Amino acid sequence: MGKIISIANQKGGVGKTTTSVNLGACLAYLGKKVLLIDIDPQGNATSGAGIDKGDVHHCIYDILVDDMDIKKVIKKTAVDNLYAVPATIQLAGAEIELVPTISREVRLKRAVDSVKDEYDYVIIDCPPSLGLLTINSLTASDSVLIPVQCEYYALEGLSQLLNTVRLVQKHLNQDLMIEGVLLTMLDARTNLGIQVIQEVKKYFQNKVYQTIIPRNIRLSEAPSHGQPIIQYDPKSRGAEVYLDLAKEVADNG
Ligand code: ADP
Ligand code: MG
């Protein structure tokens, strides 16, 4: 049965989408069957996984708002074993349109539950907010992976995220766990990075992954080619570290 992991942090630009796409592609490279679900209206995971939004006729919006069968929305990607549920800008309206609907928090869960047996992992790329889309993702998930950027105020805002996790545990999904905390965009040339690592490890202890993602130019170039790093430049440092992360995640079960 598939494990469902939300990639969440309400801060923008911390590496959620980069991690969703590349963790997904690296797990697929390791032979796991992976479904990557894009639930951010910006649709960056969709294009990052190589799906041309011009070719998308149905997206996550249709699943959440119109109860469309998820199987009609899943697309194969150019990476073996990697499938995706795309998002388009249409999703921007969903947060408001869902408010008056019945069972608005469990819509994604119902859809994902209907296919999770067909995959080893379902990875959900969350938007930079703690609204209904992220709540749907946390409600559908077994666990949440939190990317934290190695910068000043790295821990800022995390108490709100953890509070949301607790609320979801209490009211919607009592089995939700913290999968792990991933340090991203480390600049090895500065002392700041080392301080942030210590601070985050003090707070999250053994929940912090051994693998730390450095700043790597190839990782930032890959999305504009519509390729995960393992495809775009398999020999790069970026590919190496995301493969290390995928192994850690797979070892976790
Ligand atoms: P989020 O989804 O949290 O908003 P992204 O994954 O989109 O964050 O990352 C924000 C920006 O930083 C993107 O332009 C991305 O290409 C870039 N980026 C992410 N991780 C790295 C990295 N390790 N090294 C260099 N650039 C990165
Ligand atoms: Mg993103």
Automatic annotation (TrEMBL):
<dbReference type="InterPro" id="IPR050678">
    <property type="entry name" value="DNA_Partitioning_ATPase"/>
</dbReference>
<dbReference type="InterPro" id="IPR025669">
    <property type="entry name" value="AAA_dom"/>
</dbReference>
<feature type="domain" description="AAA">
    <location>
        <begin position="3"/>
        <end position="178"/>
    </location>
</feature>
<dbReference type="InterPro" id="IPR027417">
    <property type="entry name" value="P-loop_NTPase"/>
</dbReference>
<protein>
    <submittedName>
        <fullName>ParA family protein</fullName>
    </submittedName>
</protein>
<dbReference type="Pfam" id="PF13614">
    <property type="entry name" value="AAA_31"/>
</dbReference>
